[in-house]
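Hello,

Our lab assistant flagged a job as stuck in the queue for most of the afternoon. It eventually completed. Since we weren't sure the result was trustworthy after the delay, we are filing this so someone can double-check. Below is the sequence as submitted and the structure that was eventually returned. Let us know if re-running is recommended.
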Amino acid sequence: MSYYLNQYHKLAAITNNPRLTLDNNLVENAIRPMALGRKNYLFAGSHKAAQHAAMLYSFFGSCKTQGIDPLKWLSQTLEQIPDHKANRLEELLPGYSRKK
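-- returned structure --
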């Protein structure tokens, strides 16, 4: 009962706001692939291979969260690179136009 009384204001916020939930299943499901990948990097063969795998994993995760097709992005970006200014490479990142 003591715990409930000490946490009442937080529980009241959850019951009064329908956007808040009592569990964190959505977050746990979103980060599960990263946790599994982290474990798999132990068996990548070398530290460099694990770094490369982590970069690719991060790239695909970023594309997924932004609703970007990685293959389409990659083909468009490879076409743009030759004519793109080197000091503006961040503009080629997935989802850059959405940040503005």
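-- support follow-up --
The delay was a queue issue, not a problem with the job. The result is valid. The radius of gyration is 21 Å. DSSP finds five helices and no strands in the chain.
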